[in-house]
Amino acid sequence: MSEQGNNAWNAQPTLRGEHVALEPLTRDHADGLRAAVADGALARLWYTNAPDADGVDAYVESALAMQARGVAWAFVVLDGNGEVVGSTRYYDMDASVPRVQIGYTFYAPRVQRTGLNTQAKLLLLSHAFEQLGCISVGFETSWFNLASRAAIARLGAKQEGIIRNHRRHADGSARDTVAFSIIDGEWPAVKRNLEYKLQQHGAGQDG
Fold first, then answer.
1. Cα angle 149-173-169, degrees, rounded to a multiple of 5
2. 30 and 57 in contact (C-beta within 8 Å)?
3. Could you tell me the strand order of the sheet in which 136-142 lies?
4. N or C: which terminus of the chain has fewer CB atoms within 10 Å of its end residue's CB?
5. Per-block mean pLDDT, blocks of 10 residues, the chain (207 long)
6. How far apart are the two ends of the chain, measured CA to CA in Å?
7. pTM above 0.85, yes or no
């Protein structure tokens, strides 16, 4: 790994684009996250692990505990007006490869399937490949989460396989996990495609 990559692993960044900002998650963001999930629509999807309003504090504490173990960086997602609209994170961070996973992502309904998400993923992937020096970035989702699987594929990630009974859904049922990845050799084309999507559709359009 380059010296730049080694240094970049020492501190969680704030990532900013024209239409979105990703800031390190703190307990102070809990009220904003509660507002983002207030309608409960995400929590009603049994195959996701997005919190409902009552579960936000536990979600934040779990994220901060992962950070304390050095295996994750959790971010709060802010829209162009600085309003909290969701959360995402790097997890399973391994500087020895180097590799990260991107996940634990949820958004307020008003920004789902918009260019805000496209730009957020562009910022995360750019930092992973260009600053952390990753040779691979992974994504995981439930077999039943067809929308998430399609969204990950639209990023340009390749499906690697299905891990049977890999984790638990929020309701306790066993989850078959669909694993995707983007590797460093694919990143230039993936980046170009994401930049093209933003240029064509803008942050308020379907991304």
1. 45
2. yes
3. 15-16, 20-24, 72-79, 84-94, 99-107, 136-142, 174-183, 158-168
4. N
5. 68 94 98 91 81 94 96 96 96 97 93 87 98 98 94 95 94 95 98 92 48
6. 32
7. yes
